[in-house]
Amino acid sequence: MILFLLLVQLVLCAVILHKQVVRLQFRNFATSIFFLVYAIVYVLEPFVLHLSFGGARSIVGVRPWFFTDPYVYYLYNAYGIALLVVFLLWDRPEDSTTVAPPPRAREDLDESNALAVLIVIGVVMFLYATGMSISDLLIASRFAWFGEGGFSIFWLTVSSYFVALLGTYAYMVTVSKKRNWWLLVLCIGAIVFHGVITKDRKWVIFLASGWFAGLYETSGRKLSISRRAMVSLAVLFMVLVVSQFIRDVIFRVAIGEDIVFVDEVKRWQSFLIEYGDISYFYRASLEAIHQNLNHGFLVPFALVRRLLFFFIPVGYSGGLKVPDISATFSDLVDGGDAMRSGNMPPGLFGLFVMSFGWFGSLFAIPLMAPALRWMDRLFRQGHSMFRQVFLAMYVFGVVLAFRGDESSAFYFVMSTAMMIWAIRFIRPAFVRQRPMSRSTDPNRPAGRTA
Q1: Percentage of the chain modeled with pLDDT above 70
Q2: Which of 60, 165, 209, 237 sits most deeply, having the most CB atoms within 10 A of its CB?
Q3: Whole-angstrom distance, CA of residue 16 vs CA of residue 204
């Protein structure tokens, strides 16, 4: 029955993707990216898990158990089928028309340079926030800085917002005809270094997000995936996969395990599918449904309150804004340790189930269909600065939203928009007006003509 329901979802996804990706070539950018990711992590991956591994394992514990409650699986598929059907019913011919973009304005090289400088500052700020030396960070486990006496959570948070500018910077570099190559190399070098010492891979998704958005923009607000683009995507995917493998192996070496590399590669092939990051998207949503359905766990309207009051710190909101959902869910499934509460997002469907309950989510999740239509129109027709930032960060936001990390998916977009607005507001005060040449000065007396 579970495989049949997943097959129904697969057919519905194929119908949507054939129109949006094949026929319309990503003209509806929001819809195309969303359902492309949905098909991979919420349909194909679960299909493989149930077909080849006998089901999905819980995210709790070192040796997780299989979900055996069929109603958890039924609800998961009910949410997906409801979303897909509502989207198809919402489809209208006018939603497929393309609005020709206006002539591209002169790219602001100074603005992209400012973002590059801020990104490098963010990396330096991270080093300061950890209170650790570079050599210690290189060999330390992930999040080891939380146990340091000189660690600063404030500067760590600020640095993450600066580093998140990478998505918009990648977009600007892609659409621009001019670029400062020295700053570009410095920025990319700093970001790769940041990824090495943090053992974090968000920088790859930031780069891919900005690059995709730039290609969409420069191709007349549509996207045709060339062979070169496919190779680049394959390389990005391999970086994500291999980095997860290396991160796991390095940690086990650090705690003294004997590692045989050939055996690890064989083990990792099945581990990646059954326990890896891609399977987490699905398994986390199942866990959230299980916790609400069988244990009554609920944080009323958590998702709405987190997004609506994003600009207010939790401690100053008077109870209106709830704590970070990923940390809350992590505490529930015992995902933290002595240093930190943990970061285990509940998956996209899990965000809704934690906020509205298993029954309310049957009505809340399909509301994403009209939201996607609104974003499609914004990307096709809009010209604002917020639209550029949102477009540049959209792929990143979708990936993090499917994982259930509402803070990263939403807050980085808002912080990037506010920082670019600040740059545009402050910059005129520091830019001297270039004096007009005598040939262009309208007040210059007319000279003799030949």
Answers
A1: 78
A2: 165
A3: 27
